[in-house]
Recover the amino acids of this structure.
């Protein structure tokens, strides 16, 4: 019987795979994926039970999509050593403290390097204002057009979207429970012990020194609720200027029959395609989640598909795009 791949792989190799898989995007950067490599050649993906967003993601859709993205990241990582990660199958029996099993998949040999592998280390979420709009950047954005991807690059559409996105964001953020949950995942001070672990830190939010100091005070739930009552809170969470600076808006439209896990796998690859095209992106999830705003885009969505997300894309300042921090690899192996 052939020996299982990675049967004698050093721990450093396993950790490198896990570290790369962890680079996949997750909602609020909560990083719910945990991994176990079994002697027989299987890898089991678990969900950390304490990594949830019960207010903004009550059905668990976004967490499942985040797990799918992590699985795709693992498949790409394994391809670097000519391994293939076969199709995932639901897993129910495996156990790990504080986790529940999601899927298992067999690792086999004879794979080619994934064509998007070179983009993994370059991918960043850029939430600031984009810096350049030209024919080359527009052409790059259009390269990702596909059956499940539509690119909007008309400037009027983008300006209108900047207003509707702010409307959608405010409908969520004006809810005290929603804002309180977001606050739990904001890392606005470098002195926060979680700053280099998870969540949305000030660097990745592209906040200036002044903005991060103000945000630590004004976005605190007790203060923010008072500002909401005074009707002065909305400008604090506006992203209209950043949206208007985009080269294009990328509509991600998976099939309605696709599971959230599969949606997450494809979403990660789409983002890597944008990276490979030389573009940065930031999700506009509120526009896809809000019923009223989503209707603006549904003219581009056929009946067999749904709008899963909107990405604003563009060119970012060289050397000024922060990398989201990740949990230590040892915490991701169970």
């Amino acid at each position: 019987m052939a020996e299982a791949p990675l049967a004698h792989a050093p721990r450093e190799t396993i950790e490198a795979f896990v570290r790369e898989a962890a680079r996949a995007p997750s909602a609020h950067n909560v990083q719910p994926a945990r991994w176990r490599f079994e002697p027989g050649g299987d890898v089991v993906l678990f969900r950390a039970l304490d990594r949830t967003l019960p207010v903004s993601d009550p059905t668990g859709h976004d967490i499942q999509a985040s797990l799918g993205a992590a699985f795709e990241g693992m498949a790409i990582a394994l391809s670097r050593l000519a391994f293939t990660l076969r199709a995932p199958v639901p897993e129910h029996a495996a156990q790990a403290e504080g986790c529940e099993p999601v899927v298992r998949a067999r690792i086999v040999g004879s794979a080619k390097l994934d064509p998007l592998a070179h983009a993994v280390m370059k991918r960043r979420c850029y939430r600031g204002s984009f810096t350049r709009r030209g024919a080359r950047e527009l052409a790059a954005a259009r390269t990702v057009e596909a059956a499940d991807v539509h690119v909007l690059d008309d400037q009027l559409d983008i300006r209108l979207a900047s207003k509707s996105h702010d409307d959608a964001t405010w409908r969520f953020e004006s809810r005290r429970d929603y804002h309180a949950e977001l606050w739990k995942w904001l890392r606005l001070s470098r002195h926060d012990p979680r700053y280099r672990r998870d969540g949305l830190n000030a660097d990745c939010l592209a906040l200036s020194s002044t903005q991060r100091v103000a945000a630590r005070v004004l976005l605190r739930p007790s203060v923010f609720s008072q500002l909401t009552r005074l009707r002065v809170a909305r400008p604090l969470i506006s992203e209209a200027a950043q949206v208007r600076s985009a080269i294009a808006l990328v509509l991600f439209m998976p099939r309605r029959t696709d599971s959230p896990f599969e949606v997450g796998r494809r979403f990660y690859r789409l983002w890597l395609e944008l990276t490979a095209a030389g573009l940065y992106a930031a999700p506009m999830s509120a526009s896809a989640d809000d019923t009223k705003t989503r209707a603006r885009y549904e003219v581009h969505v056929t009946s067999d598909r749904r709008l899963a997300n909107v990405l604003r894309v563009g060119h970012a300042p060289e050397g000024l795009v922060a990398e989201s921090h990740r949990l230590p690899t040892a915490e991701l192996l169970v």
